[in-house]
């Protein structure tokens, strides 16, 4: 009888344990400004609380983030329009009346602001990172509010037909939430002091 009990115990120990629920997460390739401005730090806990989906952000430049998505190494991209950024740089390099052309620091927006502060130089910065930037020194805003400086963000699912490993359902849940009234209100609600950093417009015609 004791032998049977021991055999039964061994059999139970050898039996496979119930599979633990897999952690739900997606990888979002994004610009540095969404992270360094603090937007993701504010936004993602709200999304995770609602859906149970964790978001792992890879913060790169727009071009690098899109390249990451093209390789299928991300589920969602949250970036500026690359064509608009390239057009802006091309136009800047073609302006002959300025003795100094635009220079790419090769850094994220936060480190680039630090470089400008150290050099006492002009820099183009997004509003969100500027407001959250503490090491301003003598830097002040020269121009803001000009429509020509408008730089739209967009969010989209990486093509699951080209990359079958993309977490289509989880990624689409994130995309749908960002552009939903709840997500848009959350983005608008991110403030430092009394200053609003981002102005969502997914529900406006032509956005």
User: Per the principal axes of the C-alpha atoms, what is the gross shape?
Assistant: globular
- How many β-strand runs? 6
Strand order of the largest sheet: 2-1-3-4
Strand content: 5-15%
The structural domain count equals: 1
- Biggest sheet record: 4 strands, mixed
Helix segment tally = 9
Helix-strand topology string: HEHHEHEHHHEHHEE
- CATH topology category name: D-Maltodextrin-Binding Protein, domain 2
CATH architecture classification name: 3-Layer(aba) Sandwich
Which structural class should the secondary elements be placed in?
alpha/beta
State the end-to-end CA separation: 76 Å
Q: Which percent bin holds the helix content? A: 40-55%
For CATH, the homologous superfamily is named as Periplasmic binding protein-like II
Q: Whole-number average pLDDT? A: 80
The radius of gyration over CA amounts to 23 Å
3D structure, described in words:
The chain has one domain: Periplasmic binding protein-like II (D-Maltodextrin-Binding Protein, domain 2), CATH 3.40.190. It is built from 9 helices and 6 strands; from the N terminus they run αβααβαβαααβααββ. The protein has helices spanning 2-14, 32-36, 39-51, 62-70, 82-93, 109-119, 127-132, 168-179, 181-188; strands at residues 25-31, 54-60, 76-80, 153-157, 191-192, 195-196. The strands form 2 sheets. A 4-stranded mixed sheet has the order 2-1-3-4, sandwiched between helices. Helix 8 packs across helix 9.
């Amino acid at each position: 009888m004791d032998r049977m009990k021991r055999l039964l115990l061994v059999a139970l120990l050898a039996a496979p344990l119930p599979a633990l629920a897999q952690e739900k997460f997606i990888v979002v390739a994004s610009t540095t400004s969404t992270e360094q401005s603090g937007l993701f730090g504010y936004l993602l806990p709200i999304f995770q609380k609602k859906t149970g989906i964790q978001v792992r952000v890879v913060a790169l430049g727009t071009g690098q983030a899109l390249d990451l998505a093209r390789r299928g190494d991300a589920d969602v991209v949250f970036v500026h329009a690359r064509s608009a950024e390239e057009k802006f740089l091309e136009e800047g390099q073609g302006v002959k009346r300025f003795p100094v052309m635009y220079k790419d620091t090769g850094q994220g927006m936060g480190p680039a602001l630090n470089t400008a502060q150290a050099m006492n130089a002009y820099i183009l910065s997004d509003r969100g990172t500027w407001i959250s930037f503490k090491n301003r020194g003598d830097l002040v805003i020269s121009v803001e509010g000009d429509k020509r400086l408008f730089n739209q963000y967009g969010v989209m699912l990486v093509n699951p037909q080209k990359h079958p490993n993309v977490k289509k359902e989880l990624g689409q849940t994130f995309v749908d939430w960002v552009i939903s009234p709840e997500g848009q209100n959350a983005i608008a609600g991110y403030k430092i002091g009394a200053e609003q950093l981002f102005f969502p417009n997914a529900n406006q015609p032509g956005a």
